[in-house]
């Protein structure tokens, strides 16, 4: 095992992925960031993490919609850093529609990115982890990996699938020092969520506070958003030696949503 571990975090140019990349860099890991944005848009965060935590941070624009794209991300990390010790499958998209009108291409895209990409990155990275006798795979599922909501057929199917994939690979790698877990967040406060609030308030004729409490957080008993820092803290813990026996789990971080 190298002294300084390397983490690949898919979809880490914004939101939860960026927070996890930052948490792992703060924990002393080199990080391969990823997203679909051009490198110049990500350079500020990449260089900030490097400078702040004295680690090496690279960025790959690999498009994870295809098996080749997913494999190329792992190859890029292996070429840059030599190993992939931690893999966080975080990239994901959403589309909301009744099934009768759900576009076939949206179904396919959500399944490709939210589920199949994790299959292909794990397939490419796990051999090295097993060979070195240490690895951590964290799949960012969702409360929707445990329970459903209407009009999110592709997302709910993909996230349930991701939880199933997590359990299966955890069993396959159980004797090799590699743990595989899913984190299942409820609503997380990200720029994407924040941006929706003024428009929703205007469209519904209610205040921004009412949008947060009665619309977005209707299913989240704490009535608080999960924070990106909380997501990062759990990811860092799952990478620690203290979490060596935690594998095959789907950990809700959802303010009580799935307790109902
Ligand atoms: P986000 O939209 O802020 O970030 C998505 C990331 O995925 C970006 O870095 C983007 O570049 C990347 N991405 C998109 N398409 C890609 C592609 N084809 N190839 C490679 N990268 C691609 O999203 P977020 O809110 O931070 O969500 C991250 C993950 O957490 C997703 O899997 C999402 O389903 C899950 N999640 C989010 C919430 C929430 O409330 N935000 C709740 C539950 C689960």
Portion of residues within helices: 40-55%
From the alpha-carbon coordinates, what is the Rg to the nearest angstrom?
18 Å
Mean pLDDT score: 96
Question: What would you call the structural class?
Answer: alpha/beta
CATH fold label of the largest domain: Rossmann fold
Quaternary state of this entry equals single chain
* CATH class group of the largest domain: Alpha Beta
Give a brief description:
The chain has 260 residues and is α/β, with parallel strands linked by helices. 48% of the residues lie in helices and 13% in strands.
Give an overview of the whole structure:
There is one protein chain. The protein is of the alpha/beta class. Helices cover 48% and strands 13% of the residues. The chain has helices at 15-26, 39-53, 67-81, 104-132, 153-172, 191-204, 208-216, 228-238, and strands at 6-9, 30-34, 57-60, 86-89, 135-140, 178-185, 250-253. It has a seven-stranded parallel β-sheet, sandwiched between helices. Helix 1 packs parallel to helix 2 (39-53), helix 3 (67-81) packs parallel to helix 4 and helix 6 crosses helix 7 (208-216). It is globular, with a radius of gyration of 18 Å. It binds nicotinamide-adenine-dinucleotide. Nicotinamide-adenine-dinucleotide (NAD) binds at residues 10-17, 34-37, 63-65, 90-93, 113-114, 140, 142, 185, 187-188, 190, 192-193.
Keywords:
8 helices, binds nicotinamide-adenine-dinucleotide, 13% strand, Rossmann fold, alpha/beta, 260 residues, 7 strands, 7-stranded parallel sheet
Strand-helix topology:
Blueprint: E1 6-9, H1 15-26, E2 30-34, H2 39-53, E3 57-60, H3 67-81, E4 86-89, H4 104-132, E5 135-140, H5 153-172, E6 178-185, H6 191-204, H7 208-216, H8 228-238, E7 250-253
Parallel strand pairs: 1-2, 1-4, 2-3, 4-5, 5-6, 6-7
Bound molecules: nicotinamide-adenine-dinucleotide (NAD).
């Amino acid at each position: 095992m190298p002294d300084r571990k390397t983490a690949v975090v898919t979809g880490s140019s914004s939101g939860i992925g960026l927070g996890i990349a930052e948490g792992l860099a703060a924990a002393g890991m080199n990080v391969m960031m990823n997203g679909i944005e051009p490198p110049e848009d990500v350079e500020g965060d990449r260089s900030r993490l490097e400078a702040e935590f004295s680690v090496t941070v690279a960025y790959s624009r690999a498009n994870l919609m295809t098996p080749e794209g997913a494999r190329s991300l792992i190859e890029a990390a292996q070429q840059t850093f030599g190993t992939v010790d931690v893999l966080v499958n975080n990239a994901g998209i959403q589309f909301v529609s009744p099934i009768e009108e759900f576009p076939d291409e949206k179904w396919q895209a959500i399944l490709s990115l939210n589920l199949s990409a994790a299959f292909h990155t794990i397939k490419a990275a796990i051999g090295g982890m097993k060979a070195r006798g240490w690895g951590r795979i964290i799949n960012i599922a969702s409360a929707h990996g445990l329970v459903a909501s209407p009009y999110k057929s592709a997302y709910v199917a993909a996230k349930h699938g991701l939880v199933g994939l997590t359990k299966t690979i955890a069993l396959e790698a159980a004797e090799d020092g590699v743990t595989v877990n899913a984190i299942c967040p409820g609503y997380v406060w990200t720029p994407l969520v924040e941006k929706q609030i003024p428009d929703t308030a205007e469209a519904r004729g209610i205040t921004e506070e009412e949008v947060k409490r009665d619309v977005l957080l209707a299913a989240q008993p704490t009535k608080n958003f999960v924070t990106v820092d909380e997501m990062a803290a759990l990811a860092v813990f799952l990478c620690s030696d203290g979490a060596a026996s935690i594998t095959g789990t789907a950990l809700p971080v959802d303010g009580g949503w799935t307790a109902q």
